[in-house]
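Look over what follows to help learners.
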Amino acid sequence: MFKKSIQLPLGYFVGKILYQFIKNEEIRWIENISISFGIFLFVLLFHWADKPYKWKKDNVQGKGK
C-alpha cells in the first residue's frame, strides 16, 4: 500500500521541481513538499479505505448478525 501511495506524490514533486527550475530558476521547496505530502496522505487514506473489512464480508455472506 505504501509503494502505491508514494508514486503519484513523488512524480508530482520531481515534475514540479523541474518545471520551477526551468521556468523560474527558483524552487519553492516548502510549497512543493507540503503539497506532495498532502497528496501522499490523500492517496494513502484512499487505498486504506478501499480495502473491505472482514466483518463486512461476514455480514454479506450471512455469517454476521
User: Anything to note?
Assistant: Residues 2-60 form one domain.
